[in-house]
Design goal:
Blueprint: H1 2-31, E1 35-37, H2 42-63, H3 69-93, E2 101-103, H4 121-135, H5 140-174
Antiparallel strand pairs: 1-2
Helix pairs in contact: 2-5, 3-4, 4-5
Amino acid sequence: MIWYTALVLAVAVERCAELAVALRNTRWSRARGGIEAGSGHYPAMVALHTALLGGCLAEVWLAGRPFLPLFGWTMVVVVVAAQTLRWWCIRTLGHQWNTRVIVVPGLPLVTDGPYRWLRHPNYVAVAAEGLALPLVHSAWVTAVGFTVLNAVLMAVRIRCEDGALASAAAADVRS
């Protein structure tokens, strides 16, 4: 279980790196007139993602969940793939990537990288990680709980993001 704890902590460190990138990108976006939408759901998202990490550790340690090698290693591969996809999204969006929904007027919609095939690839990475990270060590309650709550949150988030992008595009057409 020690190595699993190290894995979850490594994901937590990765999340801190994401937040540092997001903070830098928030400053960049706001300096260019970026408009934030949906800030009301942001605290719930932070709480859910924090609970995922805590839930992984608590369930494994307190409920004594086993590591099932074939399944567990498969889930490690999914976690690594999710991280790879997330950082591909971050790299592709550059300054436009953020943990918040901030749209800078006048910037075109990004259609390169993973956005060539998926409208919201970052959310695919989040869903995959949220399911796989707990299942690395059979924390199925955390996996199911996160997946259900994340689906509700993503319905709100995607509607918010699509609305913000559509509003920006409409404003650009009027300009």
